[in-house]
């Protein structure tokens, strides 16, 4: 029982001092914010979404002709 307690305590100490997880979490937050902004722009501004759809259509047509 004491061995399990010591292992758990050591694991929690390593978790508190590990800063890599915090950086990964910050990247996830930034990515979520970027996705939210992109979704908001494409929902409100139809010129951007229609230009993007037109570009994808042209690219698809050119690739289908190859």
Automatic annotation (TrEMBL):
The keyword Transmembrane applies. Keywords: Membrane, Transmembrane, Transmembrane helix. The keyword Membrane applies. The chain crosses the membrane at residues 21-42. This is Flp family type IVb pilin. It comes from Bradyrhizobium septentrionale.
């Amino acid at each position: 029982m004491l061995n399990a307690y010591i292992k758990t305590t050591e694991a929690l100490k390593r978790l508190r001092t590990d800063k890599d997880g915090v950086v990964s979490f910050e990247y996830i937050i930034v990515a979520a914010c970027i996705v939210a902004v992109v979704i908001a722009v494409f929902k409100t501004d139809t010129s951007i979404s229609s230009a993007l759809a037109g570009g994808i259509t042209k690219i698809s047509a050119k690739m289908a002709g190859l």
